[in-house]
Amino acid sequence: MSSTSLIVRAATRVLTGLLLVFSIYMLLRGHNEPGGGFIGGLIGATGFILYAIAHGCRATRQALRVEPQMIAAVGLGVALLAGVIPLLIGDQLFHGLWAFWRYEGGYVPFSTILVFDVGVYLVVLGSVLTIVLALEEEV
Amino acid sequence: MAGSSHDAPALGGPIGIVSILIPAALFAWLCTQIGAVTQGPVLWTMDWVPSLGVEIGFLLDGLSLTFALLITGIGTLITLYSSSYLGYQAHYPRFVAYLLAFMVGMLGLVLSDNLLALFVFWEVTTISSYLLIGYLADDPKSRRNALQALLVTGTGGLAFLAGIILIAAAAGTFNISELPDLTQSLLYPGIFVLVVLGAFTKSAQVPFHFWLPNAMAAPTPVSAYLHSATMVKGGVYLLARMNPSMGGTDAWFWTLTVFGGVTAVFASVVALKQTDIKQVLAWTTLMALGTLVLFIGVGTPYAIEGMVVFLVVHAFYKAALFMVAGLIDHGTGTREVDRLRGLAGKMPFTFAAALLAGASMAGLPPLFGFIGKEFLYKGALESPGTLWVAGCAFAASALMFAAAGIVAFRPFTGPRSVPAETAHDGDAAMLAGPLLLAALGLGFGLFPDVTEPLLGAMAGAVLGEPVALDLYLYGGVNTALILSGATFAVGLVLYLLHGSIRRGLQTFGEGADPAWDRLMDGVAAGAKGLANFVQGGRLRVYVFVTFSTLAVMLAATLIRAGTLPDLFELEELRIKHWAVLIFIVAGAGLVAVTNSRMTAVASLGVVGVGVALVFIIFGAPDVAITQLLVEVLQVVLVAVAMLKLPHMKPENVKTVRGKDMILSLSIGAMVTLVALHVMATPLDLRITEYFEANSVPQAFGRNIVNVILVDFRALDTFGEIAVVLIAALGAYGLLRGTRYRGGSPR
Questions:
Q1: pLDDT of residue B355
Q2: Which of B226, B286, B234, B284 is nearest to B260 (CA)?
Q3: Mind listing the pLDDT tens digit for each residue in B307-356?
Q4: Fewer CB within 10 Å, N side or C side of chain A?
Q5: Which residues contact B466 (CB under 8 A, 6 or more apart)?
Q6: Considering the domain boundaries, does residue B401 fall inside one?
Q7: B629: CATH
Q8: Is the predicted pLDDT of residue B236 greater than 60, yes or no?
């Protein structure tokens, strides 16, 4: 991948970070505004793919630190966890549980829904990267 | 098959003893039912699927009880025989399991009152007989013959199933005991053909006969059991059982008498050609089956009485003679009639059993077989089409006489041959069965009165009306007796001449077997050709077929709907709509005309982005964002994959481009029409309103799409992301699998 231009290589260092931050932003705001785990995961994957195009697959795998299929598998586990937690306290499977941390002038909500969406995010990110990286290495 | 039984545990060990006791106990219990059944049928039902009103019933009448007694009684003797014959073998427990499974299937077949249950048991016998015939699985011929039996009887079984469904449609019931007269039904021709097809394949009538002699690849006890009392009589049982509701028509009479008669005569002629005792017996079994079918077709009281007696006679002597064949094989190591002479001195008990059973087979007085033959002749003489029926019965009986001499008399008499020098008789377990059955043939012949109640009830069940059966050895000089005398004379001549008859017959060809092998090869080649045709491995063909099918189906549906949707008014389009439209059309047009794959992929991406813009214009930002991202990723993925492909050749492109364009335009037109149809249908907004009302109070979220995804329908989403993960792992495996196979992981 040395043929990639310097401009692209330099730009992606910034762009990848921005895309990752943006993907988490999309994930978190998804409950009330356009966004969510699926879209967030896709954006995150785009960031890494851009990195792979500029710096190669080996560098991308090093940046990821774990195998992408592992990310996806962990994501599925996290999503399942979000569904099982209500079951453990006697509620229905995948029933949303909410907790609010209140402070003066507002509150921060926490929920199993968010945990579930994080799981979706990780599954989509990991799955897309699994396919793309394997495909690029194959070529 | 010869083997030492000296090191075998007595009666085959615990497994063997259990396998003997089970049929013995059933036999004993069935015997206690004889008294009740001769007074009238006993129906025993229990709920099967109560919510659907389906119950499973067992019908015990003269027909089913006689069959059940033969199955369990002969079954007991066969398991006893097998404990010595096969008990020393390593696979003996497997054999016992197959045999008992077969026995259960056979019992269920004859006892079921429900036709569907009957069919299930019918198939149990088919499958377990496949396992039994192929028991010597190391031998390719054995496997091939087992498969042949399975395919022939299995195909007939499917026809029978279709027949059952038609019967239920015509009669409104699956219960045999409630069946009305089906002959007046409009469905009768269909029922008739299908049921007869099932029965003829199971009972090996010409032209489906060829599997039965080949099934002799099985160990001898299996042949003795399957081909005397049980499996091959399944079809006879079915015809007898259906006779009250399906018999009496011209079609019934002529089909059964012609096929039965041809089978009987043809098979008894071929029997004389054989040199292997088991093969002679197999072909005479075909003769017996043909005779039984012939007389069920005749259907008069005398004919049915003769059929009933002959069925029992045949079960006794055929089981006995097969076991004798096994004893000879066991004692001498060969079954070739030419090599076997003068066995009587070395195998006196076997000879006694063979002589009695053979005499019954030949129809000599005072054996039970004589009574059976007399009644058959009486039935033939009073039948319509007398000449054909009586002629077939006469020819088959005379040939049978000769065959009986070949297998049951000739090997034991005359000067001792070489294999006879070292021959030894079987042990008690192996001799008990043939001796007992042969003695019964004599006992029932001398005292036929004892069989009258049960066989009378059996004939009554087949006829559908009560019968007073009166069996006797000597009824004065009449035509039947004269025919019997002539049979013996002709049979004796045939026996004396059988050497030259055999040589004459052996000049004929191999029969149906080579044709069967060609058929099987043809089926395999056809299947391979079809698979290569529909699964040729060319993606363009798959895609073309899939989408042209879609286009045709959509067109058909739209034509059936009849109305064309109203075209929307173009004035409603504003400039931004036009802009997006042109954007999309331009992208699609570029895909169609470019000669570069990369340009095509990128242009498709443009189309996708245009669609995302449509979503934005109509207020679905979530969908738009997803669409946009998926488009981008798709372009990247396809572009990466494209790097591996060679350049498109312009001349190749030209040949397919026109065709593809027509297909694309048709799909586009159809989808547009469907979309317009959908828009013309008023939307049911109740679900949307529910989510709008409940999204914030119940799930604390204003983005309904996401709230549905992660809360209301979280379980669905979980399933979907699991699918995403599995797809990714699948793709990973496909892409990396080849690399790991080389032995050098990354």
A1: 94
A2: B286
A3: 999 999 999 999 999 999 999 998 898 899 888 888 888 899 999 999 99
A4: C
A5: B460
A6: yes
A7: 1.20.120
A8: yes
Cβ proximity of B134 and B91 under 8 Å? no
Q: What is the largest CA-CA distance in chain B?
A: 113
Which residues lie across from A108 on neighbouring strands?
A101
% helix, strand, coil for chain A, step of 5: 70, 10, 20
pLDDT tens, position by position, B661-705? 889 899 998 888 888 887 777 777 888 888 888 888 887 888 888
Tell me the CA distances in angstroms from B510 to B107, B140, B210, one per residue in order. 36, 19, 11
Q: Is the CB of residue B209 less than 8 Å from the CB of residue B265?
A: no
The total domain count for chain B is: 2
Same-domain pairing of B321 and B445 = yes
Q: What is the pLDDT of residues A74-130, one digit of tens each?
A: 999 999 999 888 888 887 888 888 878 888 888 888 888 889 999 999 999 999 999
SS3 A139: coil
Residues of A in contact with B724 (CB under 8 A): 72, 123-124, 127
Chain A residue at shortest CA distance from B738: A138
How far apart (Å, rounded) are the C-alpha atoms in residues B220 and B238? 26
Interface test with A, best of B691, B721, B723 (most A CBs within 10 A): B721
Tokens of A91: 């509620």
Mean pLDDT of B377-400: 91
Q: Write out chain B residues lying below 8 Å of A94, CB-based.
A: 714-715, 718
**In chain B, which residues touch A (CB < 8 A)?**
621-622, 625-626, 629-630, 632-633, 636-637, 640-641, 643-644, 699-703, 705-707, 709-711, 714-715, 717-718, 721-722, 724-725, 727-729, 731-732, 735-736
Portion of chain A with pLDDT greater than 90, in percent: 43
Please give the ipTM for the structure prediction: 0.90
Residue A61 lies in a domain: yes
For residue B630, give the nearest of A37, A42, A80 by CB distance. Answer: A42
Angle at B446 between CA B442 and CA B448, to 5 degrees: 105
The three-state secondary structure class of A111 is strand
**Chain B residue with minimum CA distance to A28:** B706
- Contact between B724 and A131 using a beta-carbon 8 Å cutoff: no
Considering only alpha carbons, which residue of chain B is nearest residue A30?
B706
Euclidean distance between CA atoms B137 and B133, whole angstroms: 9
Asked if B550 and B651 sit in the same domain, the reply is yes
Position B648 scores a pLDDT of 66
B662-668 CB contacts, 8 Å cutoff, 24+ apart:
B663/B544, B663/B547, B663/B548, B663/B551, B664/B592, B666/B548, B666/B551, B666/B555, B667/B547, B667/B550, B667/B551
**What is the span of the domain harbouring residue B661?**
539-681
